[in-house]
Amino acid sequence: MRKKIPSTHQPPKLAKWLLSRAINKDIRSSAVGDFNEIFTHTAKHEGLFRARLWYWKQAAKSMPSFIIDALYWRFDMIRNYLKVAFRRLARGWSYSLVNIFGLAAGLATCFLIFFYVHFESTYDRFIPNSKDKYRITMEISGEESTWKFASISAPAAAAIENQFPQVEQMVRFASESNKQVNYQDRVFQEDQILYSSPEFLSFFDVKLIEGNPETALSRPNSLLITKTMAQKYFGDEHPLDKRLMMDDTFYSVTGVIPDAPTNSHLPYQFIASFERFEEDQEFTKSKMTKRDFYTYVRLAEGSDPHEFEKQIQSLENPIESPGWNARYLIQSISDIHLHSDFERELKPPGDSTSLLILSIIGSFVFFIACFNFINLSTARSIKRATEVGIRKVVGATRTQLIFQFTSESALLVLLALMAAIGITVLFFPTYKNLVNFPLQIQDMMKPVYFAFLGGLTLLAGLGAGTYPAFFMARFDPDKVIKGARPSGTGSLTLRKALITLQFAIASLLIICALLVNKQISYMKNQQNFGFETENRVVLRMGGRKTPLSGERVQALKDEFAQHTSIKQVSVSTSVPGRSMYQESLRKQNEDWDHKRELNFLGIDFNFLSQYQIELIAGRMLDKNMSSDLNRSLLINETAAKSLGWASPEQALNKQVVTGAESSSFRIIGVVKDFHFQGLQHPIEPLMLWHFLNSDLYSAYLTLTVETQNIKKTMSFVQSKWSELFPEYPFEYFFLDEDFKRFYQKEERLSQMISILTYLGIFISCLGLWGLSSLSTKQRVKEIGIRKILGASVSGIILLLSKEFTKWVVAANIIAWPIGYLIMRNWLQNFASRTSVTLDIFIISALVALAVAWITVSLQARKAAQANPAESLRYE
Amino acid sequence: MNLLSRSEEIVLLSVWKLQGNAYGVSIRNKVNDDSGYKWSIGAVYAPLHRLEKKGLVKTIKGEPTSERGGRSKIYYKVTKKGEKALYEIKQVQEAIWQDAPALGLDES
Predict the structure, then answer these.
(1) How many of the other CB atoms lie within 10 Å of CB of A572?
(2) Over the stretch A452-510, which tens digit does the pLDDT of each residue have?
């Protein structure tokens, strides 16, 4: 009867297939027939295209109803599955708990790591057209060293805007810190002050909360402040048109901006108008060597950034000293946070290697947790062989069994997800501090994080949940009901492989943790900074205009020096670890074209001895020589080298001219290199002289205090401060604490790896525990017979542990080369680094073995101590 | 009384109205016409399936046709139990509407 249907009138195959999968078989034929009928009808009257469109639309619209209908009629069976599943959960509750908790721990770890990694790797993506925006930076290389700077000179920035047609927009700004800001009686020391032009706002997508964005930065002495700063200075008062005094200049507030986004490489509290730099003589004069302008461009869409980078090399070469080369580089704005190792970065950059390591370790922990889940589930499934047999005999199909066990796994995974969310929320605050994460848990309520949550759980469910289901559905009812061991459980191959892999990962984690720790303690202890940091308290004396060498400072110094707990006092323009001023310098016989920029530190006569900086040639500053007040200069070894003197002695008594006072100095001494910027940074050239004009620089006062009574000493210091400098804020820090900043990143990484390592080992042990409990149960009778024949308890424990030992050793053999490669790679990041030694690997193997032995022998002891009469009774 | 859901009620009544000619497509057309809403095919079948399981309608297999892709039409017929259910619904409907004052909307 069946007529052949023209093939062009076939309904869409995929839609038809989907439909027939979804519809309950009772009504399938009828409903699919209906679809067909209307389809044919539509095709005849309105064309095939509309018919196909209708089919898809209708299929999509009908799908929910069909699925609900299908589930409705399966509900009886599902209810049975759920009942059995919950009974299983309750009966082996310790297993269930271990299983769920192991997976939850793995999931939660991944969630937390993902939050951080995602946050760090999406820096600056909020900036519109970020892919067309670049920062122009500079690399200066000599024979021995290379420096990269995040900022370039002002004239170069101006030239870039005018000379290159593909530059659509250019923004530059200067940055200042350590300025004294006051409003009426409120005085604070402020950092993160930028000076820029009105384009800054549109370029970095800064929206004004108050004020007019068109005019906010265009008038001289206008100032934008963040919401936090507005609150700090004006409280509830209306901030617009208020006048703030910054150092010696009045600025009027023309707008309020939101706080700088936490995921921006550009921190700011104040944005002031630019004119101070325009008026500056040095700004307009061609002073290419000064590198203090952060310069950003937006290139025309579709223009080649590499081509642009080549073109800008034609700009005037800022370095004319022989042996030094300068090159302009461009840097995509979204690469700045993670891929910048530039000097003068405004915010300490992130570290892509750490992120990579964390992601890898996170996924390792996840795998361990999944393996664990598979191991425990299959191990338990042996006990259910009879249930599977009965279900099969009664008529369950393989598909039904797979569905049942998969949904059981799904239930476990779902419970694990809930537990994981709980753990995540619980540990979020701790974690936040650990990785220094500026977000709140509320900020995590974003689709991307939920997608990750769901995706990862699904992956865990599919990966770890389906295998046990397929494994169990394979049982042969004929054999299992008779009590024979189900096929495929004897060999344990997959589970052995998984356990080996788990322990390989755990060993790898131990290796990483040990090495990272070793590197940190190496950096901390084995190399010193070249100066003393302990018990040094540093007071920040304020910005420019602080009467540094004035009588009041002298009075303060005298007061402090008299106190019995304060051993030494000195004043300087900066201290190690804080940013230094730059000054230009040339040799007397050279002209100004050969000048170079050097860090400089203005010091008093006590400074060098207080910091215990060593002298390798010449002499220190001497209070009794009047020339040392303004005519003598000290340099460090690196500076001597970079100025072209072969040995420190050669530098002595040479005359040089500095830009600061345009005055000539005689080099009286060379100090040993000291790490004034921490150990990660190479030592830069540095010059030191007795400061003269205090107006130009900020100042720090360093006190050497005794450890006892430190509180009393500090309150004395504070009271003297407010007595003598009532108008200045009192701020201090301990130098050694301050230096810890330089290790924070590594310290954090180390802590993270340690925690993840413990977690990895712990979860691995859970898996091992499950597996060993299974294999001992299978050997109960063997153990009984051995005992009857005279085996000792310890002999049996040894017997049972032997096999696992093999796997842990194999795991270590896998882990060693991988660990070696990873860690060697990581160590390349450090200027001074420790070596990868064999003991680390041996320790990791021993730890893994010890942990495995303890886990297994706990199980084995129970089995070995059991009464053989019990275990053999039923034979 | 075994209460029916609103969609079950509408579908059951449509099957009754169509008498001998009630199968998927015609039921859906009827339901669409009477209620004024577009029902998806799935939305018709879900209540239909429940009605069948509850024994209020029964199925009669028809001829396979080419326009249905070689599948048979399945005709639905209201059983005695279904008729009784419809009767009860009608009774209840009338009873509860009986002493209701006219709605303001009825005028238009």
Answers:
(1) 27
(2) 988 988 888 888 778 888 888 888 887 777 766 655 554 467 778 888 888 898 888 88
CA distance A12 to chain B (A): 12
- What pLDDT does residue A371 have? 86
Q: How far is CA A599 from CA A315, A362, A578, B100, in A?
A: 25, 42, 12, 95
User: Could you tell me the pLDDT band of residue A126, with boundaries at 50, 70 and 90?
Assistant: confident
Determine the residue type at A94: S
A21 touches chain B (CB under 8 A): no
- The angle formed by the CA atoms of residues A740, A745 and A751, to the nearest 5 degrees, is 95
Q: Is the pLDDT of residue A368 over 80?
A: yes
Amino acid letter, residue A866:
A
Q: State the complex-level ipTM.
A: 0.82
**Chain B residues close to A65, C-beta within 8 Å:** 40, 42-43, 45-46
Least-confidence region, from A69-73, A194-198, A427-431, A784-788: A69-73
- Cα dihedral A673/A677/A680/A684 (nearest 10): -50
CA dist., res. A371 & res. A375, Å (int): 6
Burial B42-81, CB ≥16 within 10 A → b, else e: bbbbbbbbbbbebebbeeeeeebbbbbbebbbbbbebbee
CA dist A165 and A55 (Å) reads 54
Q: Are A698 and A579 in contact (CB under 8 A)?
A: no
Distance of alpha carbon A555 from its chain centroid, rounded?
46
- Tell me the count of A-B CB pairs closer than 8 A: 94
How far apart, in Å, do the first and last CA atoms of chain A sit?
67
Helix/strand/coil for A386: helix
Under 8 Å between Cβ of A634 and A691: no
The chain B residue lying nearest A33, using CA atoms, is B68
Contacts of A846 (CB under 8 A, 6+ apart): none
Q: What is the 3-state secondary structure (H, E, C) of A286-320?
A: CCCCCCCEEEEEEECCCCCHHHHHHHHCCCCCCCC
B40, closest residue in chain A (CA to CA): A62
Distances (CA, A) of A709 to A712, A714, A803: 5, 9, 60
Distance to chain B for A810, nearest Cα, Å: 57
Contacts of A491 (CB under 8 A, 6+ apart): none
Nearest to A498 by CA among A65, A101, A72, A807: A807
User: Which among A35, A40, A73 has CB closest to B41?
Assistant: A35
Written as six digits, the tokens of A794 are: 């310890």
Partners of A27 on chain B (C-beta within 8 Å) are 45, 48-49, 52, 74
pLDDT greater than 50 at residue A286: no
* A785: amino acid identity, one letter: I
Average pLDDT taken over every residue of chain A: 82
Report how far Cα B7 is from the mean position of its chain's Cα atoms: 8
CA atoms within 13 A on the CB side of A159: 20
Would you call B49 and A69 a contact, using CB atoms and an 8 Å cutoff? Answer: yes
Asked if residue A11 lies in contact with residue A35, where contact means CB atoms within 8 angstroms, the answer is yes
Chain-chain contact of B25 with A65 (C-beta, under 8 angstroms): no
Beta bridge partners of A598: A583
B15 shares contact with chain A (CB less than 8 Å): no
Per-residue pLDDT tens over the stretch A682-723: 788 888 888 755 555 667 888 888 888 888 888 888 888 888
Nearest-angstrom CA–CA distance, A689 and A667: 10
The per-residue pLDDT for range A166-211, each reduced to its tens digit, is 888 889 888 887 778 888 888 888 888 898 888 899 899 899 998 8
* Residue A711: exposure state from Cβ atoms within 10 A (0-12, 13-18, ≥19): exposed
